[in-house]
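Review session, final week

We close the course with one last complete record, chosen because it touches almost every idea we covered. It is UPF0042 nucleotide-binding protein, a protein from Herbinix hemicellulosilytica with 283 residues. Go through it on your own first, then we will talk.
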Amino acid sequence: MRFVIVTGMSGAGKSSVLKMLEDAGFFCVDNLPIKLVKKFVKLIMQGNNEKVALGIDVRSGQSLEELDIVLRDMKNAGFPYEILFLDCSHDVLIKRYKETRRLHPLSQTGRVDKAIELERERLEFLRKKADVIIDTSHLLIRELKEQIYNIYVEDKKFMNFVVTFLSFGFKYGIPADADLVFDVRFLPNPFYIPELKYKTGMDEQVKNYVLEAETAKIFLNKLEDMLAFLIPHYISEGKNQLVICIGCTGGKHRSVTLTNEISERMAGLGYAVKTEHRDIGKD
């Protein structure tokens, strides 16, 4: 039997994930009172449900603290469970609440930012116990669905650490969520080649032009070495995502090419890798 406790920050996608698990054959229950969790566990152990998901969040109020005791009792009784924690950045959560115009469960006065901070404090003990942490800040719904399917249907190993490689154009500004920024404007610019000017780094001709420069090859090798060194240290410090931005002037040619190349190399090291091109479609 597989018993998954789905929890995390309000607005991070818990309801969506429960629907995904339900579509995948899980028997799902949301917002069950903590005092009933033990009884619920006994019932499902006596039943025929092989896959069960239980949604728990800050709506449980003060009784949420009792969950720690319940989980310890379940562990002592030899009942296996997994905790999936859905996280999201502070700024993205605020944006989501403003867009949907919904009230945060802890927002008595309408101050979403303070409610999010309080919720994060109350849920920290669950985050520390989590078997899987998924940060949905930059995930599309289809990408989240793919991750859920891989973990809970295909039983694939999940990497809690996600590396996002993002190309951008300096003339449009540095991405606000960047952790590391690399400037590749030192490379020959395809923009000044008439037949390449209106193409992008996704085109083979541009890719070949950029990568035939010896400096591009050296840069990629050094960047790969540096990231292979840095990432394990970020992981050991508890970081679960890293946004690495590579920029050129307009974000169409050099940055796109090198972002694609380094993401392919890092994917081979076993990390969960995402690739995005912020400014590729801009004038």
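Two points worth writing down before the exam:
The chain has a mean pLDDT of 89.
DSSP finds nine helices and nine strands in the chain.
Good luck, everyone.
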